[in-house]
Amino acid sequence: MKTKKIGFIGGGNMALSLMSGLIASGHPAEQLWASDISADILSNLAATLNVNTSINNDDVLNEVDVVVLAVKPQVLAEVAKNAAALVQQRKTLIVSIAAGINQHSLSQWLGEDIAIVRCMPNTPALVLTSATALHANNKVNTKQRNLAETILRSVGIALWVDEESELDAVTAVSGSGPAYYFLLMEAMEKTALELGLSAKTARLLVQQTALGAAKIALESNESPEQLRKRVTSPGGTTQHAIETFTEGGFSELVSKALHAARDRSIEMSKPSENS
After folding, report:
1. Helix, strand, coil proportions of the chain in percent (round to 5)?
2. What is the mean pLDDT of the chain?
3. Is residue 273 part of a domain?
4. What pLDDT digit, counting tens, does each position of 102-148 carry?
5. Which H or E run includes 158?
6. How far is CA 264 from CA 135, 174, 176, 261, 268, in A?
7. CB 166 within 8 A of CB 135
8. Which residues contact 129 (CB under 8 A, 6 or more apart)?
9. What is the pTM of this model?
10. Do residue 192 and residue 151 come from a single domain?
């Protein structure tokens, strides 16, 4: 793995996180390449990570064994079509982290015989705690699967799904998921102020409580339901709060929200099929 040259087309926050994670896990910086249309972004990457940079995508494609497509979805078609000749010539493994762009579209733009892994990481990759799901097309071999997994595992956990369609559900659960927790934290913090706490105290209490709950869930073999019941004393304050959530249709609202996110993910992928 450490002998593999890994390239990134697009040098934004997700690419920065992945390169930082790879370097932290022992991958040599000189084996990493990045291209971007912004000279400032490239200058920052070179200065902070000491990776190879170029404003020309072809310079990256000519050097690497695998390329991570880390550009915005709306420009991916143009980027992929321009890269197709070199990708086909070098049989480069393609790893796409662009939301809403399916493998069918990528194959149309890059070539039907290209090995493609589509990934759905989430923003906690910025602090190396991402949850990523991956799906490989039938051109990807075992070594390439391991390579793609290693790249994404450098910023958190990486799980494979059997069907590409599952990535729409993944988008709803973990891709958009951090925003759901932020929304709950936002509401708790606002109410804490109404209850008389200072802004600083409210924020720290909410943040640490979220961290503690997540840590317990990660380190326990029990389900969230069992953990909730453990901290809910009969007739106590927690029970009254939980009952209020339940009476307000909390579970039904969460289900409705995740279905809406999943449906939007499906909808977003449709235009690209005919691009």
Report:
1. 60, 15, 25
2. 95
3. no
4. 999 999 999 999 999 999 999 999 999 999 999 999 999 999 999 99
5. strand 156-160
6. 19, 14, 11, 5, 6
7. yes
8. 155, 156
9. 0.89
10. no
